[in-house]
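User: Batch of two.

Assistant: Item 1 of 2:
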Amino acid sequence: MEERVLILAPKGRDTQVMRQLLSELGHETLPCADVAQLTKAMDEGAGTALITEEALQDVSLRDLFDCLRNQPAWSDFPFVLLAARQVSPRTASAQAIVRELGNVVVLERPISAPTLASAVDSALRARRRQYQTRNHLMERERAVTESRQAEAALRASRQALQQLNETLESRINARTQDLARANDRLIKEISERERAQAALVQAQKMEAVGQLTNGIAHDFNNLLTAIVGNIDMIARRTEDARLKRLAGYAMEAAQRATRLTGQLLAFSRSQRLDLRAVPIDQLIEGMGDLMRRSIGPSIDIKLDLASATTNAMADANQLELAILNLVINARDAMPDGGVLTITSAVREAEHSELREGSYVVLSITDTGCGIPQHLQQKVFEPFFTTKPTGKGTGLGLSQVYGITQQSGGTVRIMSTPGKGTTVELWLPIATSELEVTTHPAGVTTMPSSTRGEAILVIEDDFDVRRFIVECLINLGYRVLEAENGHSGLDKLQREPPDLLIVDFAMPGINGAEVATIARERLATLPIIFVTGYADMDAVERVIGPKHLLRKPFDVAALSDTVKEALRSAAPVGVASRPVSLALNPSI
């Protein structure tokens, strides 16, 4: 009952459509006829409420608002409000209703089913965290009760001691010591609960920041795709040396921006890692020259490596980048020189965020200026830096955080101002042998000529779509384009192409749904997904990792991927019988 979804949508088929959608997703729902029934159901227990804006108009909301004001301290009941598209600003009364609801997400209709499902899932997750907080508070109150009982027992014992004769002195002392130990254990348990609560709050904060960071990086990858692609086309078309030089400068800046988005995606654990068994000691020893060149002659490097027989599960390239970031940070913390110590060891899990088992722990310690205690919880957040303005992006440690988390481990920082800093990377031990990457036999270089194949491009971002279309036309292909999945499937039905290029993340119907329907109609149609790193897992579940264009990309990457997809595809036959679009309804 505590996780059911209340639905208040008295007009039309909204209630029926929403209830069917949520039931298919496994949610328990309860339709409410009016605000009074909604308020009663909230008192009985619910996870969230899905309300249309018109259901709150011209009705008394006093009981609902009283119910919200009288919530216990741990509760902040979440609402999802489906609002009509606003041509002009909301009225003062409508704004007041939203304020009184408090914890509300306003979605403007029409709304796609995935968006609605995502909003409901987010609201339910928030409600579960509230229930967790309630349970923690109840446990703490029960422990405050136990402390009072212990204190009362102690006072009673002291009174009893005064009444005993001198022959019982040894028993009195023993009893007092037992009670003191019990009190110490209770205080320790309370402290541990408080630390666990603080860790939970920090984890929730980092998760929220990661989701925001992921969205920002994904949008920037769309922009960078258009920027990188068009700069590349300009450089290829001009013979003017000055223009080529300026285009080169712009491309270098765009590549730096690409690296920044990669760091943001690493923090949000959305970047694709190639996790393999990595011999940590060999990796550190192989980086020796690079580290010495990076820190200069005024800093001594000491190695104490003790995990030579154990491999860690990690992405070797990303791990090298993380280590280099930490080494450079250590260098900056020791402007007058010092000692940099790098150690490795195998240790058992010591933190609540780690699964039980053994880990390879890589520690990097400097003798520098250190970090104040109140800042140590913030150092892994994107764009936070203790360095002077212009001396750092604030993304190095956030990238380290993302790499270790995505590898199944964690990162710890311990620092004392004036005495130095230690950063520990905890990486899970690999259970398999080292894998060897091989290239498939028989792959040959594709010729540069084309036969004028027809390519359908489905991409909702105008700038990205324009770049892809113009590039393909210049390469000699015949190009059809569509701005969304519905339009693209209509064109595919009328004129079957030789190749489909589709963006994965699109509103309404996404690339995965488009690909599924397209394959039902043309079983051998080759498909290329255009995607950001954030979509990689979902893409590979649909079509595998073979034909992917990862944003941002340039003309050469597009050309090579298209040629490979066309080369490896079987000849496209006559389109099969049309299949109706089984799409999710919009509300």
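Item 2 of 2:
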Amino acid sequence: MITVHPGLPIIWGIIVGITILLISIWAIWKPISTYTTDSYYSLLKLPIIGKLIHQITIIPWLLLVIKVIVVALFLLVIAAGLFGTPIADRNIATILTWNIWWSGLIIAVFFLGSAWCAICPWDTLATWLVHRRLWKRSDPYNSLNLPVPKQFRNVLPALLLFIILTWLELGVGVTVSPYATALLSLLMIILATISLAIFERKAFCRYFCPVGRTIGFYAQLAPIELRPIDSNICMECNSLECYHGNATVDGCPTNLVMGRLTQNTYCTNCGNCTRSCPTQNIAWRLRLPSTEAIQTARPHWDEAWFMLGLMALTAFHGLTMMAFWETWMGELTSFIGGSGLWSFSIGLIVSLLLPLLPYILALSLIKYFTNSELSIKQLFSQFAFIAIPLAFAYHLAHNLNHLIRESVGASSVFMNPFGTGTLPLSLIENQAKHTEMLLPAELLFFLQTSLLIFGFLIAVYVIRQRGRALLTSNPWQLSPMVLFALLITGYHLLLLMEPMVMRVSGVCLPFSI
């Protein structure tokens, strides 16, 4: 049985529409002032909690305990997927992976930044297999330690892998197959292990991992960062243990120097720099949310493509869960012939390319209005940061629906993770999952509405601050990009207002291609 969630009521849609229109008017009328980015608060100053957080990052066995727990759950997912029931909503593999982990992970990024990367089971298992150490530095590394080829030293491989995983997840139906979920989990371990065995440091984390790069870009919006306590100490440091490591601690897995770090994008929060720094000059601190996306993050061509691709893929995930999607795919399949997978692939490609047309048009108009000497390619990279808050806001709002509506009763799956002797959900159980929620429906609608408005507001700040140097008169010259943000937010709003199919429901036969 397929169950759908009700969409956002029209009154909430009206609230979003009116609010973003008012923000748009303000954005193209109000003169632009300087955005302050130097306000932060060290977590070390917090009583008890600050020291506890710091201890977790400098004492290796504390982090190791968390890693062991996460790896144990991950191995349970693989075992349950391979040998448990094929009923998706009775097997912990699909419930834990898609309903709890993936939904909760995006929410956690806003509060914890890239903290998940520090305990990622893919990297942990790859490190144990290749380095053959639990936490101490491995010398030799048991790796070829080859440099990553120049053509792969960017995030385009991660974007390509993200597209492939989306095709597998939604086109082949990985989310409704415990067996396929287990195979996908094994594939990620294999990719991480091969990369670590061949390339220097952790190339998989830096260049190839779609989850890590998604978290990294979203972490630009997080109100937390790992940075030097005293920047002057870093300026006078010549040994750079944060980069090279020391006798017992590995160097930075993603080639970062703490004294020069200005953004969260590639920091995995592994704690290597905090443990190796001889002056203990590195700690967590709070900051103004979205500081990096608005102003401090540097624009790069490959990163711009990833950010825009992330925005398109996030909306595509939502689109495929609309009640009308299957009807569209059925009609397209009847028109072109062949299997439904061809229709899905066409839908994926169109969804990826469609946002590019209005984006490039907006860039061309801004270049014309401002008479800018920057090329379209330079403007493409500079304004691509608006995709991060727009994608993140919708991703959060969408995943809240899954987490709040579909996690009810998940504890029963933990009592019988393999789903031994279970039957598909009954009509009553399906109805309970449809009606019972972790939070009241009105609170969910309020959170989703607030997130869309928040994402649009941050996108407007990005446009105003990153376009400020281009202006020759008033901010109205940036109106094409504001209209683009309005278009994307409006699309996201329409998706949220439509009834949404549950992520995991019904029976799935063993996976095969």
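Residues 441-466 form the longest helix (26 residues).
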